[in-house]
Specification:
The two termini are 34 Å apart. The chain is built from 22 helices and 15 strands. With 576 residues, it is α/β, with parallel strands linked by helices. Helix 13 links the parallel strand 12 and strand 13. The radius of gyration is 28 Å and the shape is globular. The protein folds into 2 domains: 237 residues, Rossmann fold (3-Layer(aba) Sandwich), CATH 3.40.50; 233 residues, P-loop containing nucleotide triphosphate hydrolases (Rossmann fold). The strands form 2 sheets. It has an 8-stranded parallel sheet, with helices on both faces. Strands 3-4-2-5-6-1-7 form a 7-stranded parallel sheet, with helices on both faces.
Length: 576
């Protein structure tokens, strides 16, 4: 029970070992969502909690889960289950869970796709108390061993809205049917979608609803910059930004629309000497985990990603987020930008906005209760400040990029084709935002404050050129006065206007481009049709994996309710 007179974690009635683990991890004061959710979950009822990305939701459900289970049970049977939408979030949650369990003998495991089923069978033999899992692989594992989930006391649906966005609703329903009716169910999410609301109303009993931060708020510690730039010049502007970040050794997450675009930008960055890596949906788990860890450890400074990493990924040292393509979903923008400005640490979000993407910026501004502004001196609390990038800053990077692309034209062509398909799939803007965007652009946009120095240097150069007058020699001792003729800019300066024509690519090339939009767990994806070596296997063969493992190893996963043997009473192996 909570102790009166004590504040923060000290007043929540946590076990001493758990409290020491919490404080040892670095938590000093509960975040608002932790302060509200932990006591509510400890009461034992169902809970729905909504808070913005980066609010500390993971600890808000793990701490009461560990407090509830307290110690390892010698009787076989899973007691706690945490379901996450993707492998990265599941792995991250598992890492924190292990830290919180250091002071007790609770056994924990992780079940995700891309890892060996045989290893996961072996992990089940050690009778884990809690498993963190992605729904697809967990359901597969349960069916293989015909596991009984009758002893589950608490189930957590982490990033609930994302679970349904990825089409995992059917799998979640199947898992819930296997759980005991008498259990505690907890759902955490950044937003509450209609699908999540429908699911919780059907499967949660009289839940306590906690909503502290509105989904249309950004962290006060995050500063946003919106750079208006032509689509063909985004690579140059990104290079300019990364050069600035590299000088201060800042870590950066760059969000791209397609994996082909990631490949193209990674190639340019590496050619320019930028330490970087990449993560997208259909790559093997070892590479994905390694790339994320390299950024955390500082081995690389830039990570290019698609939206597979947009939710639930905690990189404590992250300084910047760059939206290379502006998202057509305002909530997705909030989730992306939520990677920085966490736990009181300042962060910066840079969005490269093409003219045709401005309607989504206008929509976002309204969603956040602000307005787009072209004025540098406008307070960010009142408006989203949009500014242009001077041509001099673009030209400084463009020449090197053009030389790089000349040696890898096919890479850029494939990226361009994938972007055509991506733009065709984008949501149509409604509500008059197109007209509002046109009016905004018609009013003129100033150079963004980030590039004001480059603009001033260019202006000084032109002023010097205009003011320059060559010295004339005196002839016959007569001092002649040079005629001062005004410089007509139109004769010497060629105006640069963005072309209205889209790139002309052969239809055959367009047809050959592939865009991978799938995530880790949707039913029917490749991960459910191949073995661990990546080879296709039949359904009949798939059903025999567990039986073959039992025959080969002479081991089996004990049934729920069986008691551990003396040889089983050892610390569970780390199967991660």
């Amino acid at each position: 029970m909570p102790e009166k007179g004590k504040k923060g974690f000290y007043g929540m009635g946590l076990e001493k070992s758990l409290l020491n683990s919490v404080l040892g991890y670095g938590y000093k004061t509960p975040t608002p969502i932790q302060r509200k959710a932990i006591p509510a979950i400890l009461k034992g009822g169902d809970v729905i909690a909504a808070a913005r990305t980066g609010a500390g939701k993971t600890a808000a459900f793990l701490i009461p889960l560990v407090q509830r289970l307290k110690q390892h049970s010698p009787v076989f049977g899973l007691r706690g289950l945490v379901l996450a939408p993707n492998r990265e979030l599941a792995t991250q949650t598992f890492s924190l869970l292990k830290i919180l369990c250091k002071g007790n003998n609770l056994r924990v495991g992780v079940v995700i796709g891309g890892e060996s089923l045989e290893q996961q069978f072996d992990m089940l033999r050690y009778n884990p108390d809690v498993i963190v899992a992605t729904p697809g692989r967990f359901l597969h594992l349960v069916r293989q061993v015909k596991a009984d989930l009758a002893k589950v006391e608490c189930v957590v649906f982490d990033e609930g809205d994302k679970l349904f966005e990825l089409g995992l609703g059917e799998q979640l329903g199947e898992i819930v049917e296997l759980l005991p009716h008498k259990r505690q169910s907890v759902a955490f999410s950044a937003t509450i979608s209609e699908q999540l609301a429908g699911f919780t109303s059907s499967h949660l009993t009289a839940p306590t609803f906690i909503r502290l931060d509105s989904e249309n708020k950004l962290s006060e510690d995050t500063k946003t910059h919106f750079l208006l730039v032509g689509e063909d010049n985004k690579d140059a502007v990104l290079s300019a930004l990364l050069s600035r970040f590299e000088g201060d050794r800042q870590s950066t997450l760059v969000f791209c629309a397609t994996k082909q675009q990631v490949d193209y930008l990674v190639h340019i960055a590496r050619t320019n000497g930028v330490e970087c890596s990449y993560v997208y949906g259909n790559m093997d788990q070892e590479h994905r985990h390694g790339a994320m860890q390299d950024l955390r450890d500082g081995l690389v400074r830039v990570l290019f990603v698609t939206d597979v990493a947009a939710r639930g990924i905690d990189i404590p040292v992250l300084d910047n987020v760059v939206n290379y393509n502006f998202p057509d979903d305002k909530k997705l923008f909030v989730h992306r930008v939520g990677r920085v400005g966490r736990q009181g640490r300042p962060g910066f979000a840079y969005s490269l906005v093409a003219h045709e993407e401005m309607p989504w910026v206008v929509e976002l501004a309204e969603f956040l209760g602000k307005k787009p502004s072209p004025q540098r001196d406008t307070a960010e609390e009142e408006a989203l400040v949009v500014g242009t990038v001077p041509q001099s800053a673009i030209d400084a990077e463009k020449e090197g990029i053009d030389r790089t692309v000349a040696r890898s034209r096919e890479l850029k062509k494939t990226a361009a084709n994938s972007m055509k398909m991506y733009r065709a799939s984008k949501r149509t803007v409604e509500g008059g935002y197109v007209e509002k965007a046109k009016l905004f652009l018609k009013g003129g946009v100033e150079t963004h404050a980030l590039f004001a120095r480059e603009e001033k240097s260019t202006e000084d150069l032109f002023s010097a050129i205009k003011a320059f007058r060559p010295k004339r020699k005196q002839q016959d001792g007569v001092k002649r006065e040079a005629k001062r003729r005004p410089l007509e800019e139109s004769k010497f300066i060629v105006p640069v206007r963005p072309s209205k024509k889209e790139g002309c690519f052969a239809q055959s090339a367009l047809a050959s481009a592939t865009v991978s939009m799938r995530e880790d767990n949707p039913r029917g994806t490749r991960a459910r049709k191949v073995n661990e070596a990546g080879k296709k296997i039949s359904k009949d063969k798939k059903k025999e994996i567990y039986k073959e493992w039992v025959k080969k190893t002479n081991k089996r996963v004990p049934k729920t309710g069986e008691k551990e043997q003396r040889t089983d009473r050892v610390k569970m192996k780390n199967m991660n």
